[in-house]
Amino acid sequence: MLVVRRDNIVLVGFMGAGKSVCGRLLARRLGRCFVETDDMIVASQGRSVPEIFRRDGEERFRELEGEMLELLRLKSGDVIATGGGLPCREGRMEALRALGTVVWLRGDLSELRARATRSGDRPMLAGRSSADIEELLRRREIYYRQAHVSVDTTGLGPDEVVARVMTALREHHAARV
Ligand code: S3P
Predict the structure, then answer these.
(1) Which atom of ligand 1 is nearest to 116's Cα?
(2) Which of 45, 58, 118, 159 has the most CB atoms around it within 10 Å of its CB?
(3) Distance, CA of 53 to CA of 55 (rounded, Å)
(4) Around 80, how many Cα atoms within 13 Å sit in the side-chain half-sphere?
């Protein structure tokens, strides 16, 4: 029987938390492969994320995220960055926790928002007021909070975030043995 060791590092958090940038850097530091659920979806559909939202709607995108979650069960030892909304459905945090150690990159909302609007086209932010975005974050925090560890990214650059993630992972694993 094939037994896959689920020792991945899974990054979750709101848009703009730095999951992609820090995940890629973390993978490089640890000599691991980097995987991003948005990239998996784009590769499988041959279309960009905004295009999928525009043509098929959010619900279809969430279904695709569920399919990628299934595929992630084949991964071991990787650093995995998830889309900001992927963990926020019934049972999804449990599924992510089963893949390895889940790290929540948290941050101050204004900073998250500034970073998110700076980099890339985010359909979930388009046309939403600040109050709506804050409400979305509050609703999602219930899920993100179920991560094994959390790291506050407020005011930090990618190198500092990665250093803190590595410390948090070391402490988490030390506490378990
Ligand atoms: C989304 C976040 C995006 C991407 C999609 C939906 C969300 O990923 O999956 O636009 O619902 O928060 P990032 O968190 O990498 O921006």
Answers:
(1) 16
(2) 45
(3) 6
(4) 29
Contact of 80 with 72, CB cutoff 8 Å: yes
Q: Name all residues whose Cβ lies below 6 A of ligand 1.
A: 15, 19-20, 38, 49, 83-85, 122-124
Output the average pLDDT for the chain: 94
Please state whether beta strands 34-36 and 79-81 pair in parallel, antiparallel, or not at all (unpaired). parallel
Given pLDDT bands bounded at 50, 70 and 90, which one contains residue 175? Answer: confident
Return the closest-CA partner of residue 30 out of 174, 137, 172, 162: 162
Q: DSSP class of residue 19?
A: H
2 Cα–ligand 1 center, Å:
33
Could you tell me the pTM of the whole model? 0.95
Distance CA 122, CA 125 (A): 6
The protein residue with its alpha carbon nearest to ligand 1, atom 16, reads: 15
119 token code pair: 């980099």
Q: Which of 41, 35, 15, 13 is nearest to 23 (CA)?
A: 35
**CA–CA distance from 108 to each of 14, 83, 101, 114, 138 (Å)?**
10, 18, 23, 10, 12
